[in-house]
Request: fold
Amino acid sequence: MAEKRGVFIVFEGIDGSGKSTHIRFLRQELQRRGFDVLSTAEPTRTGIGRLIRESIQAASSQMSPEVEALLFAADRVNHVKQVIEPALAAGRVVVSDRYVYSSLAYQGERGLDFEWVRLINKFAPKADLCMYLDISPEVGIRRMRRRRKSVFEVLSLQQRIRELYLRLVEEGDLLLINANRPVSEVQRDVWKAVFNLLKEKGLIDL
Reply:
């Protein structure tokens, strides 16, 4: 009998939304229940991903939004083909820190049309669950103040990016999780969403 296909879960959010914290919690909870979990992230650690990271951390970056979006899409091709799809085919749970919706929000903030960004990412398989951790930009900036600043960490910019994420929530692409609350409350809602998905797929008992 062929092995059952795995599950693909994505976390999205503005900078400082707590994605790393909640991905770590979810990975540990899934592993405790016997699931084989792969945590991954975009941009990746490959050559293209490193180029993107260097660009977004440079305040003097002159990269056009079109080139930036195409680089993210190219990095995503490798991510899907070399990491995500093989893991799903092996029956693993893949948890990714960012995916296509980051391109829509961040490059959308730079003026690119959603439909064009969707078109160049048409190859990317849809995740089984995409959770958007929603926080106020002010909270996100405070959380990020000790980290190295990037061009994406300006308050007004984060506010515009959040508005685009909320648009994606309204369109039904993302599940909103209020991340302004205590960590334990956010974890409860994250696990509830994942539990319901696994139950729906017949992968977990009550």
